[in-house]
Write a structure and sequence with these properties.
heterotetramer; A: alpha/beta; Pyruvate-ferredoxin Oxidoreductase, domain 3; Rossmann fold; about 20% strand; globular; C: alpha/beta; 2 domains; 10-stranded mixed β-sheet; 11 helices; binds thiamine diphosphate; binds iron/sulfur cluster; binds magnesium ion
Chain lengths: ~625, ~625, ~350, ~350
Amino acid sequence: MTGRVNDFTLKIATVNGTGSASANSLLMKAIFRMGVPVMGKNYFPSNIQGLPTWYEIRVTDPGHLTRSGEVNFMVALNAETFAKDHAEVTPGGYLLYDSTWPRTRELDRDDIHVIGVPLARMVNHHFVDARTRILMKNVAFVGALAALLDLDLDVIEQLLTETFGARKAELVKANMEAVKLGYDDVREHYDCPLPMHVRRADMTAGHVIVDGNTTAALGAMLAGATVGAWYPLTPSTSVMDAFKGFCEKYRRTADGEREYVLLQAEDELAAGGMVMGAGWMGARAFTATSGPGISLMNEFLSFGYYTEIPGVVFDIQRVGPSTGMPTRTQQSDLMECAYAGHGDTRHLCLYPADPAEAFHFSMRAFDLAEHFQTPVFLVSDLDIGMNEWMVPELQWDPRYRPDRGKVLGRDDLERLSGPFRRYMDPDNDGVPFRTLPGVHPAGAFFTRGSGHSKHGTYTEDAAEYQEVMDRLRRKFETAREHVPAPLIEYAGKAFSADGRRPQPVKYGMLTVGSGDSAVREARQNMKAGGTEIDYCRVRAFPFSDDVQRFIDEHDTVFVVEQNRDAQLKSMLLCELEVDADKLVSVLHYNGLPIASMDVEAAVLDHFRKAKAS
Amino acid sequence: MTGRVNDFTLKIATVNGTGSASANSLLMKAIFRMGVPVMGKNYFPSNIQGLPTWYEIRVTDPGHLTRSGEVNFMVALNAETFAKDHAEVTPGGYLLYDSTWPRTRELDRDDIHVIGVPLARMVNHHFVDARTRILMKNVAFVGALAALLDLDLDVIEQLLTETFGARKAELVKANMEAVKLGYDDVREHYDCPLPMHVRRADMTAGHVIVDGNTTAALGAMLAGATVGAWYPLTPSTSVMDAFKGFCEKYRRTADGEREYVLLQAEDELAAGGMVMGAGWMGARAFTATSGPGISLMNEFLSFGYYTEIPGVVFDIQRVGPSTGMPTRTQQSDLMECAYAGHGDTRHLCLYPADPAEAFHFSMRAFDLAEHFQTPVFLVSDLDIGMNEWMVPELQWDPRYRPDRGKVLGRDDLERLSGPFRRYMDPDNDGVPFRTLPGVHPAGAFFTRGSGHSKHGTYTEDAAEYQEVMDRLRRKFETAREHVPAPLIEYAGKAFSADGRRPQPVKYGMLTVGSGDSAVREARQNMKAGGTEIDYCRVRAFPFSDDVQRFIDEHDTVFVVEQNRDAQLKSMLLCELEVDADKLVSVLHYNGLPIASMDVEAAVLDHFRKAKAS
Amino acid sequence: MSFMKKPQVHHAELPVNGLGYTVRDYEGGMSTLCAGCGHDSITAALIQACWGLDIEPYRVAKMSGIGCSSKTPAYFLREAHGINALHGRMPSIATGANAANGELHFLGVSGDGDSLSIGFGQFAHAIRRNVNMLYLIENNGVYGLTKGQFSASADIGSTTKRGEANEQPPIDPVMTAISLGCTFVARGFSGDKEQLVPLIQAGLRHRGFAMIDIISPCVAFNDHEGSTKSYAHTREYFHPAIHADFIPPREEIRAEYEKGRAMPVELHDGSTIVLRKIDVDHDPTDRAGAIAYLERHREAREIVTGLLYLEEEGSDLHANNRTVPRSLVDIGMHENAEAILEEFQAGCR
Amino acid sequence: MSFMKKPQVHHAELPVNGLGYTVRDYEGGMSTLCAGCGHDSITAALIQACWGLDIEPYRVAKMSGIGCSSKTPAYFLREAHGINALHGRMPSIATGANAANGELHFLGVSGDGDSLSIGFGQFAHAIRRNVNMLYLIENNGVYGLTKGQFSASADIGSTTKRGEANEQPPIDPVMTAISLGCTFVARGFSGDKEQLVPLIQAGLRHRGFAMIDIISPCVAFNDHEGSTKSYAHTREYFHPAIHADFIPPREEIRAEYEKGRAMPVELHDGSTIVLRKIDVDHDPTDRAGAIAYLERHREAREIVTGLLYLEEEGSDLHANNRTVPRSLVDIGMHENAEAILEEFQAGCR
Ligand SMILES: Cc1ncc(C[n+]2csc(CCOP(=O)(O)OP(=O)(O)O)c2C)c(N)n1
Ligand SMILES: Cc1ncc(C[n+]2csc(CCOP(=O)(O)OP(=O)(O)O)c2C)c(N)n1
Ligand code: SF4
Ligand code: SF4
Ligand SMILES: [Mg+2]
Ligand SMILES: [Mg+2]
């Protein structure tokens, strides 16, 4: 662990509400600007001020934008968690602490390098105002790291200038002073840079740093969503904040009138109803929430399924059950989203893996909702939604046209002979025609969550009821090949008998959403160790035939997911024809994003056990 | 279809709000009193007055207390549904109608016997008051049937006397007059009794006629439930009406003080919270609801699971999704109940098959809830809950003692050294100790749905969080062998290799809840046709090992359930190690209780197809 | 503007309105309610009110929750789109629908159970948002559809058919609405169509949330002696305070009003409501006064009816939002999406 | 009665109450709220109030919803069982818990978001049921925990930190509670402990639902200029109306009160509240008058504080139910279950 140039993990332990968040971003962005791929994960507490918070930065020229699972450099600035943070450093790694308060007794490991910087002392000496002192301590450690890791001070200054803008030049100056304090002190006392450091490269061109809630919000706006309804709930709140920001910029007429309505509902149940109301009226409408909100929307989801009203629900998953850990990540709403609501219901779900896909799937969700006239979930999570990710630049597809689905307009209705019948299946795809309120008298019908016939009339008749339910099931089957296909990668190069795809190897690995990069790194590491594994990432529910085939063509498929109860595996078993023995669960559910090491360890463990038995 | 003595189905079509409900009960009870097994199913509309309603009575000395699927005698008194009702009669069967309005044009079938009785004319002639005329028309047809089917008039008079009591003797008299009107008219114009009729027998001794909502309510009272909270919702409302009735009788002190509290909540969400509040305090508490209510309780179910608060939820399932058909039956909340709530949650569920089991499982639910400190579902349905069933008399087990679970009392806490730790696993069964508010200062802890450690303290720590989640899963595993075992019956007599159970045949049939009797009759009919099938009825979730074994030991298992999406089959696939090919779904979901014919037809169809391919 | 070619001479005997429609054109499906149910009378009043206002039926959005009352939108305006929401959740559906297209007439029908029990939160918050709609509570003091349990509007001491007395204080929709800032608050009685029709008309024309609490007896479960929501009890304690005469835009105010007793209020569309004080004590434009007046009469158990509070200056959801004055249904596409995307990403490097 | 052998001489310097406890014995875990948060002051007032009433901590049930305010029950009475319910759903938990065992002291802490947005329905219905509990709303006009969105108690015109103005009328918990029939309604300010402590004490002793709306500024998100829930604004518009002096049972009323300005009200446990009128206009036992008074001051934007409405005769949930006067936790077993079963079945043949 000495010469890890451009390939190490740095973790910063501080207290929230002290300005550390901006210091951490600054650090991450500086590395990015130096052309080196970088991953950032924020582990913040569920309060406003005073609790432990961590930020993990992985500098990764191999491009593994995921947690490795180890920490090579710890910046331990929180007394409360010092012991734990100290213990977490990998042997051979580094620990930086604020030596204003020497911790000689606690520093009892001889397998790591300890760097003491008297941050508080220097900063208090230099700055007067109390709040400034707190904030600048965090900037000073950035300076220390800049020296140790060989970060470019010009880049840092440039970033500060961009943040504060020309008008707040004095802030840039103060911040740079703090940077210098740390920088100079460390250069005075330590050999800089360390053998583990950052070296300028050219690997981040064509990339951006974004979070998935912002990209999802942008997708919603560009897809034409005009009504958003929500209730604040971590970690989904920033979707709506971002949506509002975009709309204020791009959705106001010259004289300031809004071409959108954002409704802060009284709770998630009402937010769900608002989306249904707007969808019934014909607008593209959505809400963003997390597990507790989905629970509250269950009745409306059952309603939306049965009445066939479009609407989009962003579920930014967090740790459950119940209030759980609101600021930690998990994939534990997979089943709830797919089958939400009482009665026989099933919902289309899209599973983005990163902020780029969150953007594209967000747009896709609106198209699918209107095409299939049903609530559609974008199932994201806190890791995708709130962490800053380096992703390839988002591309706009100039051919994009919204798919508004089968809606009879005024002229269609004018030509209609006989009454409009809402729930027929004219095209044999399970998708009926709909009409919108206020367009034409001939389009009128009564939408109800109670029993209805294919004509849209009230019914309690067994056969009439069943006919509609059967069509709904057919509609869902149609969707199977309309939703995003899984992403499948084969390890081998040899082609299968039919020549259409490479010959599968013995093992497959299947995951969903934010598990992607950890699985990719694990695969690569295992390949280096001689084990080849094919890969499938499910991107939507219902599962397409490709998923079935992928499972069929492998002896063993590792199903990697971030929940306790193997929810993805359960859904595969429910929905496909799968031999249960084949599927081996790799489960991770402690609230931290899954690390490549977690995947690797589980798979290797399985091999070991399989060999032993 | 002539000489079907004691073995036929009678169906009465009327309009609701006309007093037909009591006439139908009278009819059913009279047959029961004559010693002949009888089944009654009520298909009533979701309004108060004026819509079509049907009542189906099966007279069944073979003891098939289920719908056969055919109607041998139709009493068609509703003009609106006359055509349909007329068409439904089995060839060779009978149709009785009110010939006050002759329907010669509509009576166009020559394969059935038509009996016209001028009910309205006779009744209007005899009675003066308008409301009495409406009511008595329904009593008059009972008289007509009494003549045709050879029912005992004394039994009818006795039943009327019991209903109205001595104080309303004039009502008994009026009713008997109406009965006689019908009776005499028919005897005058037709050969009575018909070849298809009732013959006194002695097959109902030791049986009672009860509905499952009443028995479940009685179970709740006898299990010691002291707090009930609910919001009116068909078909669950009568659980609470019955509970109240029992408590008013048996739970008031000499001076009228109540030893229970019944809370009519403002909605189901609040009802769920009230149950949790009472459970936290230590009382046995429950709610009764149906699908929409479960949807609304999702957040609290997730809370109850994670905080480990006992509580019982009766889900009297009706037709979904959404408002669906509130007065029709279905088993479409199976998955929602098992996995209700966001995050990794799973709930104990009990599945009674009839009102007798509803009684026993209701009591059991309270024991399990306190033993495992978790919400427990009693998953019943409208068919069990609201229809009158003939069942063997309920037996009280004198050894019954409530299982209040691991609760530290005042003395335990007095002896406690060190702080109380809520979420440990002292007995290695996943079940921690709990304490109740107000008992002792040493028992205090803070219950929260947010992340907590095994000590019960707030945590955002990955390992501490996971530890609790893992124990919760262990607790669920422990429950597997504590919940009611499946009921398994083998067709064969030969014993298996280990001598412990009969040798299985090739085919198995598996069902849940109210599917029981239809499957039993189908099995018996198929056996007569030469096909033997073993039988397993799942009675609880989680599924015990016996269910796994049953599936393992058969080549094909028909999974019979009353929903569209094969929810039971899905759960079997998720929870057990099952080869999906083995399970063949038999699905019925049109809102009527499944008939034996539905099962038989589906199974025979499968065989035919299997042979063909 | 109508799309439908009306059969010219149907119902020749019936008068036609400004659009050439007869009241028949405002009807809906057959009611499945009990004979004598108050709700059916309200349906009739609604039909008449809409006919009288020359409203194009298809430009109305009919909405309801679940309950006997909530079934009624199927029984009027067959050419209007309708939606039966979930129990208690019509306000959120109405809010979303109105947000999407504020150009239609929004007409919500609810029950006392639907609005005051399960739906109380949504009801209150729709008022706060001042969603531009007419919201009727068909108030019978019970849950009709689930067979007669007390609702939250049942008065203390009111009894069930079996004689059990309610012991909890009622939630009064009128008081609630006024204190939550509702800008149009009225109470009527299903048995008094003459009073009700102009109230409905005024409510439909009011810009903002107009709430009318309508006592509407349930003959099946709450019309017995001992009930305070029966026909008999309502008639006995009926206390009209402010009569509202609705006068369409640009029509002259013809009736003669006693001085000091009539207040004309012009609505945003040019129509006028003449508030005729039956009870001089009450000034329906003074919120504090109205509340005090209601509270005094409540203590006397009187059922005060009429247009009880009116504020025509409030700004509705769209005014607060400064929404463009048209439907948002087809508005959201961006010509310059690619540029927007690039502008955004420029800040992410 | 206490089970705990208290270490005899700890905190020797602190005064002890009737049970021999010091205020330290009423404390809880360390607060994790922001320094300066109003909620922490309320916690301190609660501690002092309970100490002063000689309440046995373990006989209190502490309950809350979700929010910064709802975290506070972890910071006082460490010997009491506590429960953090779901967001907005504490009233139902409290109702069920109280139904199960009405013998404890029930103390609920909520926020304005928790009670007036998501929880408004439950809040209203717990009032209707008159659950015997003290219910505090720590009212800061924002959602603190989710970082500063407006709550339903935000006043029209109040601005966010970024300057956006709220346009929806506020829900006033005091007005709401009175009009829903709440029997004890007060308002306080986290910055005025002297007024607050006796209000809390009176509320704890009141039989029935006692609601105290406490303005409690959020220093992180709503203490800026333009906010109407800031310390500065609250102090400026603070208008004490009725001061409550709480006097324990059998203690003599010692203070001298100006004639006509003091009203002693005896509570069910023999303690007394002396209502001291600061504002002679206001009679806190006259509901209609109280409402009118509040409405007038609301129009003047004044924040009226004190014990604003009190009715000591109301009957609570258990009184209405006629529950046996003891916990139901262990009561439900039937000696004669077999006979009951048989009696039932006798009617089923
Ligand atoms: C979630 C939910 N809970 C319960 C019900 C059952 N339910 C249907 S209508 C109703 C009450 C209706 O009362 P109200 O709104 O006063 O209407 P009314 O029938 O009296 O006109 C109830 C409880 C339901 N449909 N949905
Ligand atoms: C169902 C649900 N929705 C949203 C949230 C997120 N949430 C937590 S606290 C809170 C608002 C708290 O506001 P308030 O009650 O005023 O408390 P404060 O923090 O201001 O004291 C919200 C929206 C949640 N916990 N649960
Ligand atoms: S039950 Fe009552 S509310 Fe329902 S239709 Fe009948 S009379 Fe009307
Ligand atoms: S955010 Fe506001 S309410 Fe929350 S702790 Fe901080 S100051 Fe208090
Ligand atoms: Mg009602
Ligand atoms: Mg707040």
